Amino acid sequence: MKAVCVRDVSFGYSEGLVLDNINFTIEEGDYIGIVGPNGSGKSTLLKLMLGIMKPQKGTIEIFGQNISSYKGWGKIGYVPQKAASFNTSFPATVEEVVGANLFSKIGLFKPIKKSDLDLVYKYLDIVGMREYSKRLIGNLSGGQQQKVFIARALVSSPEMIFLDEPTVGIDVKSQQEFFELLDRLNKELKITIAIVSHDIGVITQKVGTVACLGNKKIAIHENTADEHALKDMLRDLYGDNMRILLHEH
Ligand SMILES: Nc1ncnc2c1ncn2[C@@H]1O[C@H](COP(=O)(O)OP(=O)(O)OP(=O)(O)O)[C@@H](O)[C@H]1O
């Protein structure tokens, strides 16, 4: 089954088209990285796939249903850019932040039932943050907060999660742990993952498929360690006038 099907989609703001007649699909179980230069439309594409904005032309289907009538948003988790995601000075504990994503059942920041709390702890365990459950979210480091936001997205048992530049401002070690976590979610829990990043070097080492945005178009590449294929992919993105410097960081 296709998790996302984007057909002939065009979208622009007042300055003109950002995405021009793009087509691609995300299969269930895929782990796809959406990369591209600043301003190439990565966040725009994500907002279209989340139904936050509507394409001016074309259609988007989520799990086989047209997005405009799609009702299964509980199946979709979203981890927004950290800076935009949450007012971290809000005096909420880690378990409250995660539990709040069950609000359709329990009401925002109302006391959490034991069975819901078990669920909250289950996902805090998965992201390795259970011992922080009583701490205020604002007192955690950026990397720790980001793990909590993943648990928050997971607590509603999504079949797919979208992540928008989730590792910005996070140190290399925490980034590594973060990508190991995503890998486990994809392989063990079979969650479909779409992650937006401008960090091609990191992303191409992690994901199964790379979607490159550039020149208002999208190019899909199966990920590969092959340097020639990587060059072709980057040429699609940045044009011929480029040189690759591979490094181990
Ligand atoms: N609300 C808006 N109104 C007008 N133009 C916008 C709006 N949001 C984005 N744009 C423009 O659309 C283009 C694509 O923006 P978008 O944020 O999708 O790119 P991006 O690839 O996510 O960029 P970055 O890597 O810098 O986050 C940019 O030229 C941007 O200036």
UniProtKB/TrEMBL annotation:
<keyword id="KW-0547">Nucleotide-binding</keyword>
<dbReference type="InterPro" id="IPR003439">
    <property type="entry name" value="ABC_transporter-like_ATP-bd"/>
</dbReference>
<dbReference type="Pfam" id="PF00005">
    <property type="entry name" value="ABC_tran"/>
</dbReference>
<dbReference type="InterPro" id="IPR050153">
    <property type="entry name" value="Metal_Ion_Import_ABC"/>
</dbReference>
<keyword id="KW-0067">ATP-binding</keyword>
<dbReference type="GO" id="GO:0005524">
    <property type="term" value="F:ATP binding"/>
</dbReference>
<dbReference type="InterPro" id="IPR017871">
    <property type="entry name" value="ABC_transporter-like_CS"/>
</dbReference>
<feature type="domain" description="ABC transporter">
    <location>
        <begin position="4"/>
        <end position="247"/>
    </location>
</feature>
<dbReference type="InterPro" id="IPR027417">
    <property type="entry name" value="P-loop_NTPase"/>
</dbReference>
<protein>
    <submittedName>
        <fullName>High-affinity zinc uptake system ATP-binding protein ZnuC</fullName>
        <ecNumber>3.6.3.-</ecNumber>
    </submittedName>
</protein>
<comment type="similarity">
    <text>Belongs to the ABC transporter superfamily.</text>
</comment>
<dbReference type="GO" id="GO:0016887">
    <property type="term" value="F:ATP hydrolysis activity"/>
</dbReference>
<keyword id="KW-0813">Transport</keyword>
<dbReference type="InterPro" id="IPR003593">
    <property type="entry name" value="AAA+_ATPase"/>
</dbReference>
<keyword id="KW-0378">Hydrolase</keyword>
